[in-house]
Amino acid sequence: MFLLLPFDSLIVNLLGISLTVLFTLLLVFIIVPAIFGVSFGIRKLYMKTLLKIFAWATLRMERGAKEKNHQLYKPYTNGIIAKDPTSLEEEIKEIRRSGSSKALDNTPEFELSDIFYFCRKGMETIMDDEVTKRFSAEELESWNLLSRTNYNFQYISLRLTVLWGLGVLIRYCFLLPLRIALAFTGIGLLVVGTTVVGYLPNGRFKEFLSKHVHLMCYRICVRALTAIITYHDRKNRPRNGGICVANHTSPIDVIILASDGYYAMVGQVHGGLMGVIQRAMVKACPHVWFERSEVKDRHLVAKRLTEHVQDKSKLPILIFPEGTCINNTSVMMFKKGSFEIGATVYPVAIKVQDL
């Protein structure tokens, strides 16, 4: 038998009240709006506030740098290798100067050490080509109070340091637990909801419930990311029997698109938590999952996709033909497999706006 002291009882009561308030807030401001696809504008207000803070921080840094005659804007490169704007002759002279004690005026027009310059330039060109840049982190135009920022913005004043500290407290002591709770809520409801719907007989009622369960859970996950999404030309949404192709900017692109439309996913069968989610989802919706051995069989994949799109009662397939994520600066060449199965293609462009 355990006896609770008055102090322990107070802590238990406060903890119970806190959990009740938290669950009520999640239900009223997150889950219920996600079911009906509405928003109270809290995320937009939060983002507008952040944008104003970022703009003020940038102006403050520029003014502080000007007062102290500090060079705020420094040359930088978007590539992987930093390159100094020097000429060929200057770099070759520097190589000769570092490798020889002779006077440069008496050196011949060509030395064997000159080939190192051309070898280095060739290696830089190979490593820093246009394709490789697509996979490096995109530079930000202003400081976002985080570590990843534009190289130009390195000057930080005391006031901005205090602001950064407050941002750390808000992000990691309040927003992070809230986002984790929302993510687990969305994933948990997706697994439970699709599993329950999967036991219903096939028909319009099952399709109706499956659609709204998917939309609700994806919208909750979007709220966990504090994402503000603007959809254009909704009249051109992909329809049954078609294929939705989109550029791939991040792993959350599926959640972004699926929070506004009802799609059949295509992917490889996984284990662990992802496998649990896949097995639950396929019970309520005809998603197309491939075994590892089937993914390498191009003809088998095309056959499965063709069978899916030929059934006009099935959902449009969501595919990312690039096959990999790009850093939001460009689009890689699409793989042609998704365009060879003879279905209507609905192109979608995704653009992420950096803060």
TrEMBL record:
Q: Does the keyword Cytoplasm apply?
A: no
The main location class comes to membrane
From which domain of life does this come? Eukaryota
Q: Which UniProt keywords apply?
A: Acyltransferase, Lipid biosynthesis, Lipid metabolism, Membrane, Phospholipid biosynthesis, Phospholipid metabolism, Transferase, Transmembrane, Transmembrane helix
Localization: Membrane
Give GO terms: molecular function aspect only.
Answer: glycerol-3-phosphate O-acyltransferase activity
Single GO BP term: phospholipid biosynthetic process
The transmembrane residues are 12-42, 156-174, 180-201
Record carries keyword Transferase: yes
InterPro entries associated with the record: LPCAT1-like, Plipid/glycerol_acylTrfase
Cellular component, GO, one term: membrane
Domain Phospholipid/glycerol acyltransferase positions:
242-353
Pathway named in the protein's UniProt entry: Phospholipid metabolism; Lipid metabolism
The similarity comment for this entry is: Belongs to the 1-acyl-sn-glycerol-3-phosphate acyltransferase family.
This protein is called Glycerol-3-phosphate acyltransferase 4
